[in-house]
Amino acid sequence: MPGPVFASGATVELRTIEPEDAEFLQRTVNDPRVRTGLAAYEPTNGPAESEWIESLDEGDGADFLICADGEPVGTIGLKPPNEVWGAAEIGYMIAPDEWGEGYATDAVETICRYAFDERRLNKVYATVYETNPASRRVLEKAGFTEEGVHRDEGFAEGEHVDVHRYGLLVDEWER
């Protein structure tokens, strides 16, 4: 059973990540359709996933299980912010069986609300491989602007690929 609800969007809830979620997370991050978009190039076993879950309370970031109708569909995280700049990076993944349902966009919008309203950040940003157009669309639908391209900076599916950087300022965010 996923942890308690921390924030709710239109279709998803962001819940705390609990030890019982390790199997879902391990299965999702190891799926080739998911890991190639995350820069994950090594397999994650159960103990490693459990260690990651145990480490979540050690930093200043915020990681959540994305749930729809009480069932896990993915994860989203806000990395520890740069307090001087007031900026933090987000990252997310959705299980392939749940792609195309709007869960990622809703989760991104929900974590942005948290970042801007509760963490008082000025900017949220994300990086996306050129080979992941669905993730680029998620960010654009959530109001992010493409800020630049880092040429051949990533490595996915056996080749160097461009990495796109997207950003959203608090003043651009529509509540």
How would you concisely characterize the structure shown here?
The protein has 175 residues and is α+β, with helices and mostly antiparallel strands. 29% of the residues lie in helices and 34% in strands. It has an 8-stranded mixed beta sheet, with helices on both faces.
Characterization of the model:
This protein is an alpha+beta fold. It has five helices and eight strands; from the N terminus they run ββαααβββαβαββ. The protein has helices spanning 22-30, 32-38, 46-55, 103-118, 133-141; strands at 5-8, 13-15, 62-68, 71-78, 87-94, 123-129, 145-156, 159-169. Strands 1-2-3-4-5-6-8-7 form an eight-stranded mixed sheet, sandwiched between helices. Strand 7 and strand 8 (159-169) form a beta hairpin. Helix 1 crosses helix 3. The two termini are 30 Å apart.
